[in-house]
């Protein structure tokens, strides 16, 4: 288990160095995420302990935002003064995103399903020709 | 000195240099918030993170403890956010077969959902005259909070404001997702799940899991990939501007 903790901290460290040196503009943990994913892809399998560590920590991921989130009390004025644009942007923006994305992806899903049916239909047809 | 007098002579100062109180309070508040949320049938409006933030804020208000003092103590928990985001690679890796099997669907979902998510929020806020600080904090609103705070910092937004906006977005997506799917007559769980993950990250994913397992898996994928891609694209775009 300690080995897996070391692995995670190691990739996080590399991400931190990349971010602080200005090498990569991404947040350090995201660089760490990509490096860990790349390492797992190269290995081809997930170490058991790493899976357990991820499940345990991600189980209470929601708690980890609390300390930073409490900081919003310092910005209650901003939230109050700009309540209208903020609420409209959050609710309206999310509704637009959900609707547009769902409709487009669903069209594609139907198109893919149709083309698959078409392909398998042609195959069946071909078999029929052979049989006849 | 007897133990009793030692106990009675203890003051805030005895605790101030140890993070026990702040960490304990945070864990306790989140635990209480989780219970409250469960009592309400895990309704998205009863988001445990938001409830815990409110509980701690009320506590700080009541005890007149400055936020900076609390944050210094709760830094242990805050620190774990980094390793947790790195570990998001694990669920993504577990779903690699699904990613490969539905690559086209997922790619199109991200190609549409990622820019629409950012532009719709930023556009509406800009038109309605929000301050540039608020607009920058809004930009990563659809991304899972752990990644969103990093993006917000990179582009010059306010991390704490971003967290609250991210949670609000998650709640909105979790509530509206199934309603919009019904209105648009879409019942493919892959489509609904993927979209909810892209638009409303972990909170949307929790709701998608209630629809069914397929919706939950696609939602988790949408959240993870959208988080990583936004973290790569948004700072680059802002660097160019």
Give the arrangement of secondary structure elements.
The complex is a heterodimer of chains A (132) and B (241).
Chain A: H1 2-20, H2 28-43, H3 48-59, H4 61-64, H5 66-70, H6 76-81, H7 83-131
Chain B: H1 3-8, H2 12-16, H3 20-39, H4 48-63, H5 67-73, H6 75-79, H7 81-87, H8 89-94, H9 96-101, H10 103-127, H11 132-138, H12 145-155, H13 159-183, H14 189-211, H15 213-240
Helix pairs in contact in B: 3-4, 3-5, 10-11, 10-14, 10-15, 12-13, 12-15, 13-14, 14-15
Q: Care to describe what's here?
A:
The complex is a heterodimer of chains A (132) and B (241). With 132 residues, chain A is mainly alpha-helical. Chain A folds into two domains: 1-64, no CATH class; 66-132. Chain A contains seven helices and no strands. Chain A has helices at residues 2-20, 28-43, 48-59, 61-64, 66-70, 76-81, 83-131. Chain B is mainly α. Chain B has helices spanning 3-8, 12-16, 20-39, 48-63, 67-73, 75-79, 81-87, 89-94, 96-101, 103-127, 132-138, 145-155, 159-183, 189-211, 213-240. The longest helix of chain B is centred in the C-terminal third of the chain and has 28 residues, at 213-240. At the A-B interface, α1, α2, α3, α4 and α5 of A face α3, α4, α5, α6 and α7 of B.
């Amino acid at each position: 288990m300690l080995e897996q903790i070391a692995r995670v901290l190691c990739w996080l460290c590399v991400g931190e160095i990349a971010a602080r040196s200005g090498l990569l503009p991404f947040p350090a943990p995201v660089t760490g995420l990509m490096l860990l994913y790349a390492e797992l892809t190269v290995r081809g399998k997930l170490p058991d302990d790493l899976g357990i560590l991820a499940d345990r920590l991600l189980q209470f991921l929601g708690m980890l935002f609390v300390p930073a989130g409490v900081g919003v009390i310092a910005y209650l004025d901003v939230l109050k003064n700009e309540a209208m644009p903020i609420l409209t942007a959050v609710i309206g923006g999310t509704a637009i995103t959900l609707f547009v994305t769902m409709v487009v992806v669903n069209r594609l899903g139907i198109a893919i399903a149709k083309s698959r049916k078409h392909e398998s239909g042609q195959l069946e047809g071909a078999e029929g020709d052979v049989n006849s | 000195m007897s133990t009793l007098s030692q106990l009675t002579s203890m003051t805030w100062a005895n605790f101030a240099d140890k993070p026990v109180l702040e960490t304990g309070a945070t864990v306790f508040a989140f635990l209480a918030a989780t219970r409250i949320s469960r009592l309400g049938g895990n309704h998205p409006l009863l988001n445990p993170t938001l409830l815990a933030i409110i509980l701690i804020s009320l506590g700080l208000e009541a005890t007149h403890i400055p936020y900076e003092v609390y944050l210094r103590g709760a830094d242990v928990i805050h620190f774990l956010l980094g390793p947790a985001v790195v570990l998001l690679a694990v669920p993504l890796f577990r779903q690699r077969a699904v990613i490969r099997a539905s690559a086209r669907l997922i790619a199109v979902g991200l190609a549409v959902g990622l820019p629409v998510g950012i532009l719709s929020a930023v556009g509406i806020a800009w038109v309605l005259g929000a301050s540039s600080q608020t607009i920058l904090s809004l930009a990563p609103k659809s991304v899972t909070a752990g990644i969103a705070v990093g993006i917000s910092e990179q582009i010059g937004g306010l991390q704490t404001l971003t967290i609250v906006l991210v949670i609000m977005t998650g709640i909105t997506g979790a509530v509206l997702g199934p309603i919009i799917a019904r209105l648009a007559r879409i019942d493919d769980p892959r489509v609904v799940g993927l979209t909810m993950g892209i638009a409303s990250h972990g909170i949307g994913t929790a709701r998608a899991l209630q629809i069914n397992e397929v919706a939950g898996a696609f939602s988790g994928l949408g959240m993870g990939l959208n988080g990583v891609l936004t973290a790569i694209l948004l700072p680059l775009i802002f660097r160019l501007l």
